[in-house]
Every structure is written in structure tokens, then in C-alpha cells.
Design a protein that fits this description.
The structure is a homodimer. By secondary structure, the first copy, chain A, is an alpha/beta fold. Chain A is built from 13 helices and eleven strands. The longest helix of chain A is centred in the middle third of the chain and has 24 residues. Chains A and B meet through helix 6, helix 7, helix 8, helix 9 and helix 10 of A and helix 6, helix 7, helix 8, helix 9 and helix 10 of B.
């Protein structure tokens, strides 16, 4: 279960959600974890949660993980390197080019530092929200440069492997562009959609369905953290926002009319919707394949204890693996709809098995 | 199981997803359903799926439901009224003020017509995607006006009740503003985010996580249908887009800099993120209450048959009702994480029961 090089001790600087989650993950794999935070009560909390000890290490550790906000990473790195606290260093921040530039500007050692960014997180923050499985199955980008020592990279790769994450090696600027596209700009735009609901009438909000709920879910994220992320990736995010803004202006211009417009006049709108179709189809699904790989079996059930258990027991008895499941929200109604995603060849057998058991299946 | 007035026969004009789903729902409640479509093969398909008969009614029906694209509703209404095919009429289109205006313009009878819009739908279309439970627990807006005959409204309300939907009475323009806020503008903005992925490098897409997946899910919708919806609700949608565009421009101006910007300079960005927090907190959750009402119990499980069944059986054996469930996507990994949402007081007992059964619970 260990990586290619042995890692026995890790210092984690910053015990928020990410640092504490990493401590939980590595501690469970037998690595000695030392926790520290600018706020000692947070390090104490993380230690009490089982993420490691909040006592300092007595000798240099194999790796120091800098789990602080993006703008503080380089200064913390320089400080730790000055104290020779670790053989190698990495960070967990969501932006990378800015940090590599700061490392150079502060004269920190670029050889022992490997930039890192696990693509994991939660809408909640703080050590109390940490989870040891936070990184399992998630991409974890590493940004070695021409100055990176191979031994430092090997140590960081071993730690990533211990968490169950999948490492991706990228240039810092390549990483920053990628996360601007798939994370930072989408987050910001989702927040702008959610902002329209901040002052909406209750009668308007009563009509909210699963669509707007999905679109705005991430907008519950911490504005202070996102301010840091956006500030340190501003050029890449601004480029995506400009492209979205240009599309928005073109669509808005077609729709901005005192009355209804002829559908045939909406060429820019249809173009944007069509590109949206193409884009969503290109997002890799579970197991790295498109969502279309699965077939959906919708089942009606009452909202009372035991119904889901009985449903999944019936699927299990039929020997069918459920790949994904969605429970559709039904405001004010006791009846729910569960959508079971299965491999296409399993859909008809599952529907037949459930119907035979008395379930209402819509397929 | 019937509404306040008896409804024994319904004519459905247009057998796409919505019309066919309504046929399935009403047929199951004992209503005689007559199906017709401009394309007779679609009506035949809907009939074969059990949504009714594709033969014409021999006498006037209680209600004719016009399930055609928004721009065609008023003309179809005038035609049906001219043939005296029904005692009352309604439609299912996503926009309403435009239709009431067209009804007046064409000289159709406003007394027997009640505008309607069930807040239900799918990313897929056509009779083959129809489901009899599509409307269960969903809001269904009705837009009676001062000209509407009470008997027509009562008939439509009875049909809505038969589907399990919850009726909301609103003015047409009030409806159009509400759906622009919670559906039409969010859909368009989600499509613009998804459009950024249409030409993205595979390495960029590999970093896509649950956030962008949720944000862009609706962008798989049919551009031709959305063109009609947006065209007939253009003033209301344009107003929301203008507000989003103004926010986007303010945020973009703060971020548009050749290098990183000081976080403290991002005042408009933080304001938008904070309003986004407020907005997402105001969306009603299941049972009309905020999502924060539930506590989450995360459980790790292997991606093989029977695991979910065993998990839900364990929850059921503990007498605990699962309110919602999410399976987190783990590209290329055999380990999955299931998040079970339960009432707060049930979270600790559930975690204890699962742990006692050998499950890995992160709580």
C-alpha cells in the first residue's frame, strides 16, 4: 500500500479541512503525522480527531505539507526550509504559477519543493469537516519544474499514492489554466446565478427545481477562501470570464427586446446552447467514461424507513451493481423518485426483477 | 384520488415527453386519454407505451391539454376551440405571458383556457423518455386571469391533483419572471460554462470534479426546445442576464490583470460570492425546508454488486430513514464514497450502527 519510496514522517502546516484530511488519510496508513497551525487550538482539534500529534517533530521529517492559503505558501516554505525541517516540501493550494513565482522571488529552494493540488474539497471548512477519504479516487496535480529534485518528486508521489488519489504531472501554468476552466470560473459563475436568488420573492424560490439546485450547489463555498484562489489565479480566470461574458453579451443582445423575439432570430443563443451540449458531453464520468455509458432505471418509492434498503436489497439479489443513484427532491410530497444508473445491459434485467418484486418502475 | 370536480376524458395534443408523461399519469388514474400529434407515428408510440389511445374522441372531452412548443400553443387553442373539442383547455408551455397575449391577438376564447406550466422535465425528450411519475411532488403553475371561467380552472386543478403535482396560482407575468430567475437564466448560464469545455484539452477535462459536473448537467438539454422557451420569455430572461452580466463585468474587471492581484482588492468579487452564499441558502430543500436540515454520514464502500444493498439494509435495520443519498464519482478508482443524508438526530445512531456492522464511516 506504500508508494515507490518509503515515507515514515510528515509535517502538516495548517490544519484546516485539507491539512486535517491529509493527516487522517496518512495516519491510517502508518505514517507519523505532526500537526501545526498558526492557531494552536486548530492543531489541537485536528490531533483530537486522530489526524496526528500537535507536538513538534524531534528530527527532520520526510515531507512537509504546506496546507495554508495560496498567498501564504511561499513565505511558509522559505521559513521551513530555513529551519531544515524536512527533506522535501509540497503544498495543497488551488493555484500554482503564482506560488512558483513567489518561491523564486523570496529566494526559497526550488529543488526540494514540488507544487501540488489535490482536486478535492467540500462546501464546508475547518478540521471538524475533515475526512480521511477526501482524496480517494480524486486527481492530484503535481507541478514539478526543471529545478525540481527527482527525490523530492518521488517522495511527494509516494504520499499522493498513500491517499488513494491519482497523480497528474503538469506545468504550473497548464494547471492554472485547467482549474480556471473546470473549477474557478464555473464556481464564480454559479455564485452569480445564486446571487440572483438572494433577494428573490418566496413565490419565486418555491418554483426552484433540481436544475438550479445543481447549478448553484458550489456557491455555498467560503468567500474568503475563494477570494484567495481567484486572486492568485486572476489572469487565467479572467480569460475564461471574458469568454463567458462575450457569449453572455451576444445572447443577451438577442433576447433584450421589449416583447418576445422570433425563435429563428436567436442564432447566437442556439450556437451557445449547442456548444454547451458538446461541452457537457465531454466531461469524463465515473471510471473515466461518459455518463451516457449508463442506463437509468427510475423507481417510485414512499418516503419512509426501509424503502431504500428494500430497493437496494432487491437490486443486490438480482446480482446487479448500481453505478450511481439520485433521489429526486419532491417539495412537500411524500412520494419520491429514485433513479438507478446501471450498465446498459443490466437495465432491463433490473427493471424486470424490481417489477417482479412489486416496485413501480418507469422504463 | 380524484380532484374536486370529476374529470373522465382528456385530449392531449402533442405527444412528446410532457404530453406522453401526462397521458401515462392520468391513464393510471382511470381517465380516458386521447392522443394526437402532428406526427401520427409519435402519437402511435405514446399509445403503445400505455399513455392512451391515438383514436379521436367521439364526443367533446372534459379537458384538452395543448402540449406543443410555446410558439404554437395559441394557434392550436384557437383551432381546437373552433371545433368545440373540449369544455376546457390548458397548456404545458414554459412561458405564459406570451401565450395569453397570442390568445388575445388570435381572438381565441380566454374563458375556457387556463395557462399551465408543470415544473418538471428531463434532459431527454420524446415519448420514449416519458414517465407517469414526472409530475409527482412538483410545482405546477396555473395562470388564470380575470377572464377565466371558474369551471375551467376547477377542471384543470382537478387534473393537476390527479398527477400528484402541487398547484400554484400566479399571474402570467409573475410566472415568467419567476421561471426566468430559477430556470431559464440559470440554464443559459450553465450552458455558457459548459460551452467553455467544448474545445478544452483532454488534460483539462481530466480535472473536472463533481462541482462542474453539477453546474453543467442541465446544459445537455435540447437547444431547439430551449430556443422556443427563451424566445417567448425573452424580456424576463434578458433582465436576469443583464444583472448577471453586470456582476460578471465587475468581477472580471477586478481579476483582469497581467499578474496576480491582491486579495484585498477583490471587493466586488467577495460581494458577489457572499450574495451567492445567501442565494443558495434560500433555495427550499426537500419537504420545503433548507438542505441544512439534514446531517450527512459519509460511508466508504467498494464498487461491486451488493455493497449498496447491504449498506441500505443496515440503515433500514437500524430503523433510520435515508432522506437523500449521493455517490461521489471516483474516476478510475474502485473505491467509492456514499453520503447518506438523515435527520440530524439520526446521524450518530446511524454512524454507530454502521460502524458496528464493519462499515468505514467518516463522522
Amino acid at each position: 500500500m506504500t508508494g515507490t519510496v518509503p515515507v515514515s514522517s510528515v509535517l502538516i502546516v495548517g490544519t484546516g479541512l485539507m491539512g486535517t484530511s491529509l493527516g487522517l488519510a496518512l495516519q491510517a496508513r502508518g505514517v507519523a503525522i505532526y500537526l501545526t497551525d498558526r492557531d494552536p487550538t486548530l492543531a489541537r482539534t485536528a490531533a483530537e480527531l486522530g489526524a496526528g500529534t500537535d507536538q513538534p517533530p524531534t528530527e527532520p521529517v520526510d515531507l512537509a505539507v504546506i496546507a495554508v492559503p495560496p498567498t501564504a505558501v511561499a513565505a511558509v516554505l522559505a521559513d521551513l526550509q530555513g529551519k531544515q525541517l524536512a527533506a522535501a516540501y509540497t503544498d495543497l493550494a488551488s493555484t500554482k504559477a503564482h506560488i512558483h513565482a513567489e518561491v523564486a522571488r523570496l529566494g526559497a529552494d526550488p529543488a526540494s519543493f514540488v507544487g501540488g493540488h489535490p482536486m478535492a474539497g467540500r462546501e464546508r471548512s475547518g478540521p471538524g469537516s475533515a475526512r480521511g477519504d477526501l482524496f480517494e479516487g480524486r486527481p492530484w496535480v503535481l507541478t514539478p519544474t526543471g529545478q525540481t529534485a527527482p527525490a523530492a518528486l518521488a517522495t511527494v508521489q509516494a504520499v499522493v499514492a498513500l491517499t488513494g488519489a491519482t497523480p497528474y504531472l503538469m506545468a504550473p501554468s497548464e494547471h492554472d489554466h485547467a482549474v480556471a476552466v473546470v473549477s474557478h470560473a464555473p464556481h464564480l459563475v454559479a455564485a452569480l446565478v445564486a446571487a440572483r436568488l438572494a433577494d428573490a420573492e418566496p413565490a419565486v424560490l418555491a418554483l426552484a427545481g433540481p436544475g438550479v439546485r445543481d447549478i448553484t450547489r458550489v456557491a455555498a463555498g467560503d468567500p474568503a477562501l475563494w477570494r484567495e484562489i481567484l486572486a492568485t489565479n486572476s489572469p487565467a480566470v479572467a480569460a475564461i470570464l471574458a469568454a463567458v461574458g462575450a457569449d453572455l453579451a451576444a445572447v443577451g443582445a438577442e433576447l433584450a427586446n421589449p416583447g418576445p423575439v422570433p425563435p429563428a432570430a436567436l442564432t447566437a443563443t442556439v450556437d451557445a446552447l449547442t456548444r454547451g451540449n458538446r461541452g457537457v458531453a465531454r466531461i469524463p464520468g465515473k471510471h473515466g467514461t461518459p455518463p451516457a455509458r449508463y442506463a437509468t432505471v427510475p423507481v417510485v418509492l414512499d418516503d419512509r424507513p426501509g424503502q431504500l434498503a428494500a430497493l437496494f436489497a432487491a437490486a443486490g439479489a438480482a446480482g446487479i451493481n448500481i453505478e450511481d443513484v439520485r433521489i429526486e427532491h419532491s417539495p412537500g410530497q411524500p412520494v419520491g423518485l429514485v433513479e438507478l444508473d446501471v450498465r446498459p445491459e443490466a437495465a432491463d434485467p433490473l427493471a424486470a426483477a424490481l417489477r417482479a418484486g412489486g416496485w413501480i418502475v418507469h422504463r
